[in-house]
Amino acid sequence: MAALVTLRNVTKSYTRGKQKVEVLHGVDLQIAAGEFLALMGPSGSGKTTTLNLIAGLDQPTSGEVEVGTDRIDRLSRSALADWRARNIGFIFQFYNLLPVLTAEANVEVPLLLTHLSKAQRRQRVQTALQLVGLADRAKHKPNELSGGQQQRVAIARAIVADPTLLVCDEPTGDLDRQSAEEIMELLKALNRTQGKTIVMVTHDPRAAEYASRELHLDKGRLAGDEVRHVA
Amino acid sequence: MKYFPLVWAGLWRKKARTILTMLSIVVAFLLFGLLQGINQGFNKAVQNLNVNRLYASAKTSLTDGLPIAYMNRIKTVPGVKEVSFWTYFGGYFQNARHPLPVFSTDVAALFKIYPEIKIKPEYITAMQQTRTGALVSDALMRKYGWKIGDRIPVGTSIWTSKDGSNTWYFDLVGTFDASTFAGGFPSFYFNQSYFDENTSFGRGRVHYYIVSIADPTKATQIASAIDALFANSTDETRTLTESALAQSQLKQMGDLNFIANAIVGAVLFTLLFLTANTMMQSIRERTGELAVLKTLGFKDGKLLILVLVEALLLCVFAAALGLFLASLVFPALRPIFGDFKMPMIVVFMGAGMALLLALISGLPPAWRAKQLNIVDALAGR
Question: How do the domains of chain B map onto residue ranges?
Answer without folding.
Answer: 4-47+254-378, 60-235
